Every structure is written in structure tokens, then in C-alpha cells.
């Protein structure tokens, strides 16, 4: 996903450079700027998720996966199935998903 989004972002940037659009005055410029920022945000989110999954793998290797980082209690199997990189149980998460 990261590779695909990075390629899409690079393509948008390259296309914008070829067209020399003026984001402020060109009607298409705002669309290009919007798309660039949308893809950039998705790319950031994908990198954050990858980092969280890497942290979860480290936790698995250390034997602490499935243990809440806040209270030390178990994180329920259903929560881990839905959010494999979560570091908190439902009680400590305070209802966050």
C-alpha cells in the first residue's frame, strides 16, 4: 500500500510540474493540490499503521503482545482481531476504537 501510494503521490507531483499550474488562480490547480494532500495524508496514515504493526511484532517477540500497556491486563481477543496493533484494552482505551 505504501509503495502504491508513494507512486501515486510522485505521479501527481510530476504531473503538476509538467503543467506548471497555479494552485491559487487555476481552477485545476486546486484539484491537483487537493489530490496531492489527500494522497499525502493516506501515505502518512499507512506509514503510521506500518510502524504500529512493527511495534506489535516486537511485542510478540518479547512475549508481551496482548497485554495492555496501561494497566498490564489482557487485551481481549476480539479487540486484537479488530485492531492487531492496539496497545490498550477497551477499559483503558476509554471507548476509542
3D architecture notes:
The protein has 97 residues and is mainly alpha-helical. Helices cover 66% and strands 0% of the residues. It is elongated, with a radius of gyration of 20 Å. The longest helix is centred in the middle third of the chain and has 36 residues, at 27-62. Helix 1 runs antiparallel to helix 2. The chain contains 4 helices and no strands.
What are the main properties of this structure?
about 100 residues
Question: What are the SSEs and their pairings?
Answer:
Elements: H1 2-19, H2 27-62, H3 77-82, H4 90-93
Helix pairs in contact: 1-2
Biggest sheet details: none
**Radius of gyration, CA atoms, in whole angstroms:** 20 Å
Class of secondary structure makeup: mainly alpha
Number of helices: 4
Q: Name the beta content range.
A: under 5%
Cα-to-Cα separation, first versus last residue:
22 Å
Low-confidence stretches: none
Oligomer: single chain
Counting DSSP E segments of at least 2 residues, the number of strands comes to: 0
Helicity range:
55-70%
What number is the mean pLDDT? 86
Strand/helix succession? HHHH
Shape: elongated
Concise account of the structure shown:
With 97 residues, the chain is mainly α.
